[in-house]
Amino acid sequence: MNSLNKVRQIIESGKAVLGIELGSTRIKAVLVDQVGTVIETGGFDWENSLINGVWTYSLDEVWKGIQECYKDLSERVKEKYDVRLNKLSAMGVSAMMHGYLPFDKEGNQLAEFRTWRNTFTGQAANELTELFQYNIPERWSIAHLYHVILNKEEHVKNIDFITTLAGYVHWKLTGEKVMGVGEASGMFPIDISNKNYNKDMIEKFNSLISSNKYSWTLEEILPKVLVAGEEAGKLTEEGALLLDPTGELKAGSKLCPPEGDAGTGMVATNSIAKKTGNVSAGTSAFAMVVLEKELSKLHKQLDMVTTPTGDLVAMAHSNNCTTDINAWMEIFNQCLGVFGVKVTPGELYKNLFEKALDGDDDCGDLMSYCFYSGEHGIGLTEGCPMFLHPANSKFNLANFMRVQLYTCFGAMKLGMDILTKEENVKIDKILGHGGIFKTKGVAQNILAAAIGAPVVVMETAGDGGAWGIALLALYLDKNQENNSLEDFLNDTIFRDADAVKVEPNQNMVIGYERFIERYKSGLSIEQEAVNYLKNRV
């Protein structure tokens, strides 16, 4: 049987597994076979909106995007394999972590979806960090909840359930109000000894808000926590129609626990073992390192989350990464268009990214800040993208492109430096994933220099978290042997994986350190720009 017929049989027999991830700018679907090989993908581009000072997506946009993404996948499957996609063995849903989605007892949405990108919860986050003696970042769900309590927002008294985007979509597909432990760890701190919410901190929170006399307590409105390998419900008739309004998709598929993009990124890069980590680079950038032990003290620049199996992870997160470089690439594309030159996006990115390697290791004294939104780790509540080229700098295309790539990892590096230089955490390797790594050897080398550790990029890097959640669904589907997730990934998925590993180039390491010192000293300029924008009439 040829490979085409073999895949067709997998699809027809309902053995294919689906993963869907709602990223910041793209919703992606990945269909895999029983060994995790990608059969086909689908996608839908979308963008968040800033409405009344809140970064958000409407739930109508969510379902339109999911349906268009699934439709794109289905049509590609039909075109390539001449078979209808109407039955799945298992599936999983992932999305941007954190944020705030509250609902009442009837399932009515009580407030707009407030995404991870909102940084107006500073007071709430700081007060909870002091209360718990545990870092509570501004984007965490509990910070958003306490923020609306402090603001005395009318809807709080009617809350019956709060969740994240992944948890919401999973709920509507299955009827189950559950959450994977990795995603849950971005809502509220997890006790890694029992892989559930920290009871002492829940009691402290309930005591903190007791004077409000709400009808609910925190443990009553949070999703139930599950770990990888546990079944999190089945696709209902209503859920199948939400996903595929044509009615062709049958109900009954098993679903794995919904996870955030951090957890699925770890799975997609096989970086759930201790002393390994991964960097996910897209609209935001975050580095995750699986720890051997607790850190020595509280660091507000580092988030403590977990793997999908509940192991402790330190995360250095930045809200901003590729948005600004994408904007510059569009300017270059428009410039070429003026001269009647047409290039594909792939060609544009590849050639200009590769040009960056011709630049000076310290970017020729150029500086760029890619802050479209606020950046919690450096105290920015709002952003203003900025490019600086001193009169005596080496201002050329190679250095321009290089500094745009350097700054993508700048804010994240500040957190990683705490982990490696202050806490002396040892890292054997970091696995990179996200579209920025598609041009071989460019962003990979820059990241290795930024963190001072080997960086591995796999051929699957471009499929990212959608593939990662598909693998978690496949792990659920095949977990009759009760293998650990780590063994499943090593033995079934990544045994023969193609991967490229680069060691840090010492000249580039030195150059990046010079860049980051200028980066830190220039942050006051960024703050002044934000102040200027605030004060404009």
UniProtKB/TrEMBL annotation:
Domain Carbohydrate kinase FGGY C-terminal: 278-475
Protein's recorded name: FGGY-family carbohydrate kinase
Originating organism: Clostridium gallinarum
Location of the Carbohydrate kinase FGGY N-terminal domain: 17-240
Gene3D superfamilies, alphabetized: 3.30.420.40
Keywords: Kinase, Transferase
Origin superkingdom: Bacteria
Single GO MF annotation: kinase activity
Family to which this protein belongs: Belongs to the FGGY kinase family.
CDD domains, per database record: ASKHA_NBD_FGGY_BaXK-like
Record's keyword annotation contains Metal-binding: no
PANTHER family the UniProt entry points to: SUGAR KINASE (PTHR43095), XYLULOSE KINASE (PTHR43095:SF5)
